[in-house]
Amino acid sequence: xxxxxxxxxxxxxxxxxxxxxxxxxxxxxxxxxxxxxxxxxxxxxxxxxxxxxxxxxxxxxxxxxxxxxxxxxxxxxxxxxxxxxxxxxxxxxxxxxxxxxxxxxxxxxxxxxxxxxxxxxxxxxxxxxxxxxxxxxxxxxxxxxxxxxxxxxxxxxxxxxxxxxxxxxxxxxxxxxxxxxxxxxxxxxxxxxxxxxxxxxxxxxxxxxxxxxxxxxxxxxxxxxxxxxxxxxxxxxxxxxxxxxxxxxxxxxxxxxxxxxxxxxxxxxxxxxxxxxxxxxxxxxxxxxxxxxxxxxxxxxxxxxxxxxxxxxxxxxxxxxxxxxxxxxxxxxxxxxxxxxxxx
Length: 344
Ligand code: GLO
Ligand code: MG
Prior knowledge:
Layout: E1 7-9, H1 31-41, E2 45-49, H2 50-53, H3 62-79, E3 82-87, H4 106-126, E4 130-134, E5 139-140, H5 148-165, E6 170-174, E7 183-184, H6 189-196, E8 205-210, H7 211-216, H8 221-230, E9 234-238, H9 258-270, E10 280-281, H10 297-315, H11 318-327, H12 330-341
Parallel strand pairs: 1-2, 1-10, 2-3, 4-6, 6-8, 8-9
Antiparallel strand pairs: 5-7
């Protein structure tokens, strides 16, 4: 069963444990050492920010960036790993304080476009065809600071620029309704799917659905996945978990709401997610309490939970489910699922 799905995570998922109120509590692990952990944890794919692959890229020329990214590609190959996607990190530089593609300063918007092109060079050098865009600061703290119609147009233009610059790539937009902003312009799957149709290549724009982000929007992750699947636009997933409407927790998949996790696995498995090479991506953080030597358990655990839920999805008595649907006895269906999850 494990062989049917390929799993990925990003190097930022092994981290030092800093939060907005406290400093790091674990040592940094250098990138090469992290790569050596992937296979041992059961993972084949590496998710990248552009500067995970090429640190300090804003101070390097285009050729240097490609050279460095090719070195990383060789490191991946020697570990038997592949890059799943590259995402432009557009939220740390001073020029992205007011957003990147939607900044009110044209010079800052230009920086975002240029950086995205360099990111696309890295995509090629790492041998993948997938880009993820998480619109961290494309939004507002106060509505009057920007014009939302203009901002959506700017986001679409920036997508277009990327799609024309590198005609091989597909872009998976990762919607998130808030954090760090009060409100973002692409908060849900529906927004992400829709904006693709403002570009010249709608077929090449899809989504990367993150469980926690959907919960923050007050929606159901499995239904959001179903929506994207109906449009053939579920290019990737960021599975994790989230305990209600608070900061983005990035808990281990299924650790908060097992039934919600079951339903995500169910929609994915029933619709052959992964058959065209899509990864089961995680975006999970180790709790700050974890000591150094056990700070990767959240990754292995999330994968194990996913695979056990695949078994439960497949062993669910489909005839019984069908019968209860026919009878419209949803209380009994509720109980059937609960019993199944409780191993009865
Ligand atoms: C933050 C996002 C972030 C992205 C990553 C890849 O809330 O989940 O971690 O997934 O930057 O684009
Ligand atoms: Mg994410």
